[in-house]
Amino acid sequence: MAAGLAASYGAAVPAAGTPVILVVGDSLSAEYGLKRGTGWVALLGQRLAAEKIPARVVNASISGDTTSGGRSRLPALLQQHKPTHVVIELGANDALRGLPLDGTERNLSAMTQAAQKAGARVLLVGMQVPPNYGTAYTERFSGMYTKVAREQKAAVAPFLLQGIADLADSTSLFQADRIHPREEAHPRMLENVWPELKKMLK
């Protein structure tokens, strides 16, 4: 069902050889609390069109998803959409639920390997957790994405919310729950992902 409900941005039917970018994420990529078409993934489709890069974006993100959920959904998504590029934006909900980091790391590695085996290039989008999680946990969590990317020879965008969550006063950039960014923060989120993704598309 999740695969069938995936939102698509760009050409309805891509021409042969046209890149297909599959985004597998959580609420940060699923436009939680936003008007449809205003999240960073939708903005990615607009950026591709503006720069005349012929690619189609498939947003298969689900609010609340974990790396375990993404790992279980990925095989069907790869089979259905046959992406040339896979963007993995997961892990924040693992931390919120207190799931062991070893499992999160294994899931990210397995997803990366599965996508690569299917012929796709992979971009891991990193996250960070608040300092109240403890220094050891926060450092290991933030470094996990770079570690997996290095081991699996994938690309990485270190922190999706850089320039948003790490500002001295970031309250105005978040919704009332103080977890999900407001619409005006999503262009910056795209800027945190775009440089690495653009390199992969060349």
* Poorly predicted runs: 1-5, 10-15
Query: What's the CATH H-level superfamily name?
Result: SGNH hydrolase
Strand content: 5-15%
Assembly status: single chain
By DSSP (H or I, 4+ residues per run), the number of helices equals 6
Q: Compute the separation of the termini in Å.
A: 32 Å
Question: Total strand count, please?
Answer: 6
Strand order of the largest sheet: 1-3-2-4-5-6
Instruction: Let me know the average pLDDT.
Output: 92
What best-fitting shape do the alpha-carbon axes yield? globular
Q: Give the helix level as a range of percent.
A: 40-55%
The SSE string, one letter per element, is EEHEHEHHEHEH
Rg: 16 Å
Number of separate structural domains: 1
CATH architecture: 3-Layer(aba) Sandwich
CATH class: Alpha Beta
User: Biggest β-sheet, characterized?
Assistant: 6 strands, mixed
Produce a short descriptive summary.
By secondary structure, the chain is of the alpha/beta class.
Description:
It is a single chain. Helix content is 41%, strand content 13%. With 202 residues, the protein is of the alpha/beta class. The chain has a single domain (18-201), classed as 3-Layer(aba) Sandwich (Rossmann fold). A 6-stranded mixed sheet has the order 1-3-2-4-5-6, sandwiched between helices. β2 (20-25), α1 (40-50) and β3 form a beta-alpha-beta unit. α1 crosses α6, α2 runs parallel beside α4 (101-117) and α4 packs parallel to α5. It is globular. The chain starts with 6 loop residues before the first strand and ends with a helix. The relative contact order is 0.15. The model is unreliable at 1-5 and 10-15 (pLDDT under 50).
